[in-house]
Amino acid sequence: MTSAVRSSRPMVLAGGAVLLLAVGLLALMLVRPSSSAGPASPAAAPSDTSVDVGFARDMSIHHQQAVEMSFIVRDRTSDEAVRRLAYDIINTQANQRGMMLGWLEMWGRAKSSDAPPMQWMGHSFTPRGDGSLMPGMATDTELDALRAAKGRAAEVLFLKLMTSHHRAGAEMAQAAAGSADTDAIRNLAAGMVRGQQSEIALMADMLKERGAKA
Fold first, then answer.
1. Do residues 4 and 12 lie in contact, with contact meaning Cβ atoms separated by under 8 Å?
2. Which of 12, 54, 204, 206 is 20 to 30 A off residue 159, Cα-Cα?
3. Would the pLDDT of 14 be above 50?
4. What angle do CA 189, 94, 183 make, to 5 degrees?
5. Residue 26: is its pLDDT beyond 90?
6. Closest CA to 55 of 168, 183, 189, 165
C-alpha cells in the first residue's frame, strides 16, 4: 500500500462524517417545526374568551372531581366491577385533564379565571357555594356522604353521582365538539361524548343490578 493511498483513507472517512452530519442537520430542520410557527405562538393561540380556552379550563375542574370521587369509592368497596370503572375514570380523565392543562400552558393562557364558568357556552353558571362549581358536580355534602359510605351503599351513591357528573360533562363536551376552533379540542371533546355516554349506559346497568335507579 502506497503512502498516497494510506493518507487518503482518513480524508475519505472525515468527508463521510461531515456528509452524515450535514444530512442529520438537514433532517432536523425538515422535521422540527419552527418555534415561531408552532401552536404556542401568541398569534395562533385561541383567545382567552374562546370556546377552546373556556372548555379546557372548565372541563379540567369537572374532571378533577370525577377523579376524586373515583379514588374515594375505590377504597370503600371490594366490588371488582365498580373498582374497575373507578380505575378507568381515574386514568382516562386524569390523562385528558393533563392534556387540557398542557394546551392552556402552550397557548399562554391562565389555567383558571375569575369569570363565571360556562360563559363559553353562551350562558354562565353561578356556583351555589356548596362545592358544586358546575352542573353535574357533586356538593361537599354528597362527597362527605360518599366518604362515609361503604360497600353497596358506597357503590350506589358513587354510580348515581357519577351518572349526573357524566351527563353534564357530556353536554359540555358536545358543545365544545361543535363550536371549538382547534382540532385538538374538537377531537378530544367528541371522544369525551362517546366515552361518557358509554359509561352512563354501563352505570345504569350497574345500578339496576343493585336495585337502584340513576
1. no
2. 54
3. no
4. 25
5. no
6. 189
177 vs 26, 39, 114, 154, 190, CA distance in Å? 38, 19, 24, 33, 5
Residues in Cβ contact with 176 at an 8 Å cutoff, skipping those fewer than 6 apart: 51, 52, 55, 59, 120, 185, 186, 189
**Cα–Cα distance between 25 and 27 in angstroms, integer?**
5
How confident is the model over 190-204, as pLDDT tens digits? Answer: 999 999 999 999 999
Whole-structure pTM over 0.85, yes or no?
A: no
Yes or no: say if 53 and 59 are a contact pair by the CB < 8 Å rule.
Answer: no
pLDDT band at 100 (very low <50, low <70, confident <90, very high): very high
**Residue 24's pLDDT band (cuts 50, 70, 90):** very low
